Sequence to fold (553 residues):
Amino acid sequence: MKPDNLLKIRSFLVATDRAYDPETHMWVLDVAPGRVRCGFDPLESETSGDIVAVAFEPLSKEVARGAEFGSLEAAKFVGPLVAPVAGTLVAHNTAVLADPGLLNQDPLSHWLIEIELAAERSSLTGLLEGPEEIRTWFEAEVERFERQGALAQGALAQGAPGQ
Amino acid sequence: MSVLRAIGAEEAEETVSESPQISPDWVRISYASALALRFKSGRYTRPFDFGGINLLLSYDEGCRSDCGYCGLARSRQGAYEDKSFIRVDWPMVSTDELVERMAQHEDRLTRLCISMVTHGYAYRDTLEITRRIRSRLATPLSLLVAPPTLNEERLRALKEAGADMIGIGLDAVTEDLFREIRSDVPKGGLRWDNYWKIVGLARDIYGPWKTNCHTLVGLGETDFDQIEIFERLLGRQIYSYLFCFNPEEDSRMADHPKSSVKRWRRLQLAKFLLEECGFEPSAFDFDDRGELARIHAPAELVDKVVHDGYAFMTNGCPSSGGEPGCTRPMGSWRPTEAPRDYPWQPTTADRAVVREQLALDEILRPGPGPTRPPELWAPPVAGRPAPIAS
Fold:
């Protein structure tokens, strides 16, 4: 699934066809009524370094917002995968299990999991949506990661999704 | 994402079309170095200051040696440029761009190191890169050398060009093991006696505590073998830098198990007691298999060593101030594993884990403490309190 409506923020391309969770740096995309797909936003992908493995909790597991649904291993980093919304895990992306580097190459196209929402989509809070809201937040986050030294100098390399 | 994209894809494509990416104009750098110099984006699970930059020579033909455990081994599958080393990618960068970037970040750099590979041009190119670095940077520079490429004259020339420390990757600590893993190999065997010849020359030319030998735990040696090497090197005022064998995928030793953490911790402790606390080999007893069975030492002294945690930090060349300069984060462990050697002073929580891993009750027995004259101890790393019981 190719992302729509791309914003260029610094050298990152960010899709506005979906919502973003500022706490987890995950995107949330509606794929069916009451069902969303989740993946890394471009900053999470970039600042993780070369991703070498992901693992997921089993399907049918219920997760709360902010709860772990798996783990990530990168070249020098390991950490939990944290759910941006509450619900039941209903799908894993087997492509990224087999080739975790896809998450670095194109984080907007390569998703992690699908969740059957525990609550009405319209009742979800804490997600950022719409170009202005996304741009304001994302720009501030790029600056924050730059200050931390987690972003490559010069060109903050980020190929267009799907390249 | 490649470093080439990080420095601009168009620029990189132009450069590629003009010349091959080989040393001395191109080098590979460790992943941690690429993060420190911001060639790559990324982060650590536990953030810490890191300023040890490691460069690796690179040639189309690759390293001409064929060591059983090494990711760069000649007979390991795959194109050389795709081979991992110490299990992670080493991004390729332009040497001039690297020197520029290091100069830009020099206030945070603690130690630089060029790792040679066994190749006909390795000496020539190490000399050239040393000169390029020295023309712009004052950060101390080590060379991890390939003994087959060197002799006395060349070691002197490298010192004259600005290198202040020499490292030799002995890795296998007995002659038999060295022969099995590094000499009698499918392609390009190395010679134990030649390695020791270069160790001796480097010690004589660079001076006391300016040469180091890397020793790997877990290749098949015994604890007795390791402690014997520590003592041999200590007697010549040569540092031992301890590394933990990690199986490299597709290498000939890919299925060889890593040493237990208990064994690893006990060797770290024994090495520290020997080098920095004035113990002698007689303080250690071994069983019939050569495994460390007893450490005879005052319990309060060992307790303090574990409490301080220095014994469990990464061994590496010092900064200009004598503090740890090269800390190789995750050189001996994966991010998913608990640290084997710490690039930071172990925290209270780290030390509690170390203490449990050591299981000292099984091995520690009363003993007399330091017996070696203080002038024969290894100098401690700067920033630490004075050596205990001195």
Observations:
- The domain at 3-376 of chain B is CATH 3.20.20.70 (TIM Barrel).
